[in-house]
Amino acid sequence: MPRTRDGQDLTTAYRAINGELWRAYERGEIATEELQIERFRRLIDRLDVTAAVRPPEAWFLNMQFIKRLTACAELVPTADRVVPDLAPIVAITNGFPEVQYPRIQASGLACWIDRIFISEEIGAAKPSSRFFDHVLAELGNPDPSECVVVGDSLTSDIAGGAGAGMDTIWFDRSVALGSHAAHRPEGLEPTWRITSLVQLRDILLV
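Now predict its structure.
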């Protein structure tokens, strides 16, 4: 596998580029169609390749990536045991419908999910108030104080849920992944922080 010109491995470079673009998407600075292509264009630009070994075009890499991603549904440990205990639940996601629906079906958890809300279909992304206002309206306008958002993204899940007046549970995956904890924006404090999904039972099943 090629590396970047500064010696970074392909996976690390892609994650950094992809993460930066998704944060721009959360801020409403980039459309999903542009995001999909731009992440691979930037990755190609950083690769250490010669003219004799040209990588595929960005659109082709994205097409192949999406095709394979739809069949990928690796569960977070204990999800298959915890989600049924909390059902029915509502899934909210910043993503592409052509990816998210097949992945949810392949996960084996679809039967426990009552509704699925995808940013591209709504026309607004987490953490915007438009996204959460739409979800609440579709659910019959429940009291936000009676709702809880569970997510692993501080900038989309936690910020969006808190802005909508909901309690939030930040699933900090850094411990399980052995990585550095995400930077917490100043003034953003989740209601709870968990490092394992089983901890949801102690919070929600009371």
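The chain has ten helices and five strands.
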